[in-house]
Write a structure and sequence with these properties.
Elements lengths: L1 E6 L11 E2 L6 E5 L11 E2 L17 E3 L1 H5 L21 E5 L7 H11 L1 E5 L12 E6 L9 E7 L2 E7 L6 H8 L3 E6 L6 E5 L1
Parallel strand pairs: 1-11, 2-10, 6-8, 10-11
Antiparallel strand pairs: 1-12, 3-7, 3-10, 4-9, 5-6, 8-9
Length: about 200
């Protein structure tokens, strides 16, 4: 079975990714992000002034009915396959990007360079690798520094970083059986990557 080995990773705006240990697993939802600018983004998130309903800041992952919330974008300038403008009747994930570490622009630049990697506490029930779309919101993505969705990606894999000495342990084997991509993290040389047979 293949295990990806990283000799150091580039530092992201929020720091280096966390290495898991038994009893404390850090899952990362990873994807490449939207390949072309979407004219529907940023999409302003509003809260009803009367009842208080709406999409509010939330730590972690949440499911939403994007089609019901946003509808179709008939003035779309994207192609017909744009899942932001033409959502199907499926659930989308929603996660927030912390303003402490990123502006919408800096996160987008990092995603284009390194790919998207969002930390989650556990794998959401119903998440499908290669299919689930995740919308990303930021508190200051709208014109007047208001909350808005500014980016999106399809989950291509779920990654967990572990120490090399933990590779043969049962808790790591259980992660692999769940379809998680296990990454053996070394410290030292940067930007090198290879495969290790275990």
């Amino acid at each position: 079975m293949n295990v990806e080995v990283y000799y150091g990773e580039e530092r992201r705006g929020c720091g280096y990714r966390k290495i898991s240990r038994e009893g404390k697993v850090f899952y990362y939802l990873c994807g490449s992000g939207i390949s072309a600018p979407c004219d529907r983004l940023p999409f302003r998130l509003q809260v009803c002034p009367v009842c208080g309903n709406g999409l509010k800041f939330h730590r972690g992952f949440q499911w939403i009915d994007w089609h019901r919330y946003a509808g179709d974008h008939n003035e779309c300038e994207c192609d017909e396959y744009c899942y932001i403008c033409h959502p199907n009747n499926e659930r989308y994930g929603l996660m927030w990007v912390g303003e402490r570490f990123y502006s919408p622009q800096s996160f987008t630049l990092e995603a284009e360079k390194l790919g998207v990697s969002k930390l989650i506490a556990s794998i959401p029930k119903g998440l499908e690798v290669g299919k689930t779309k995740v919308l990303l919101a930021h508190r200051k993505a709208w014109k007047n520094k208001e909350p808005a969705i500014f980016y999106a990606f399809v989950v291509r894999r779920v990654e967990v970083l572990v120490r090399v000495e933990d590779l043969s342990k049962d808790w790591v084997k259980r992660l692999r059986k769940k379809g998680v991509v296990v990454i053996a993290a070394y410290k030292g040389e940067r930007c090198m990557q290879k495969k290790l047979e275990v």
